[in-house]
Predict the structure.
Amino acid sequence: MSKTDMIILKRQQLYDEIWKISAAGVAKKYNLNYGKLLISLKEANIPYPPSGYWTRLNCGKDVSNDVIALPDSDIEDVNLYPEGFSFRKKKKKNNAKEMQENVESDTESELATEASAERLAEVSKQQENEVKSDPLDEESVPDTILSFLPKEERSEVIGVLRTIEIKKNARFHSKVISYKQSVKEWKKQERERHSYSYGGRRNYGQNANDVPPFINDISSEGLERVYRILDALFKAVEQLGGEVYDNLVMRIREDSVHIKFAEGQDKIPHALSRQEARLLVEYNDAKKQGRYASRPQIKKYDYVYNGKLRIIFSDGKYIRDSSQVNIEEKLDEILIRLYENSEENRIAREKREEAHRQYLEEQRRKEEIQQRYEKEVDNTVALVNQAKDYEIACQIRNYIFALCKEGELTEEKSKWIEWARKKADWYDPTVAREDEYLGKRKYSLAEEEKELAKKRRSGWKL
């Protein structure tokens, strides 16, 4: 392979693209051999992002300290090796002179000297280390990524992050199939609604709850991409023990998360339809003839979908297509963000639950205080009522004592005193004597509730 078969880029351009889409992205863009690209970068003294740079960048971290400026160099053009190029190791020459001539010749053609082979081995080792320190490798993932997960669960999630991808020929997840069918049915009903409207028939309205998600924010072509993205995410979530609901909401760990899709739009001058052009001509003719006419309301601009998707999370943050990378290639970032949303929702839920628990505890405490107060009131009133009964008992006994001092006790008077003492004991809560006719006195009740009254006779005839 000669130099004419190689790809040549300006050193500054190569540096810019390496830091914009990564070395792997440049290799994919120009169909280059990744290992030999790293050799070319080293020989041209072009720095490339360190391990973990893209993960930190995609997670919104400050990576300004990681950026390495392009050093000065006399090199302007960099030769790059396409995929499929292989180094050929030359046979050893018999003398130093022949070996030197061979080295010079190979340097101009294919870089196949022993030194090149050693450099390739060095870069291969470096490439192997870079693969091992891939941002999605558990040991190289920054501690700040998914740090809220237990160690075993974090390892499991990182394992899925490494394998999540769009599988074009795979059968869609059942929820995606249902969603796709609902979109189809809605579009059919939409056509029928327009047909009814133009035909002068009744235009049946649509229930907002029946409108499939994202249908009004994405083109038909964009929906095809959404189906594949949701399919990969749903399968990954369920693989990790989560759940997907009919409304496309996902349960990750113990909390639900939801996403929205939207497609960018370009503002372009409005192209007149035939009907609009006819109305405009009729308006202009009427004005020329001096007749009154109202100017037709024709919009100046149209907004057309441009194919650039973005996925929006519940906190308003989003991941979108860039000029180099589509969101289909950012599924790992999306899944990480979903887990972060789930953690944010968990924290918010636990705060709500704690606030509700404190509210219930406060209500319980207030209720307990209220009950204690009411019980205290009841006990105090009962005490007062009992004291009043005791006071009556004491008054009766004092009265009996006074009667005993006056004159001789006759048999009849003695019987009455005995009867009166029993009534005093009946009034006295400390004795609580049960009366043959009056029964037990309810000392705690109010006086009006204990007032003695004759029972009305019923059913008696004179």
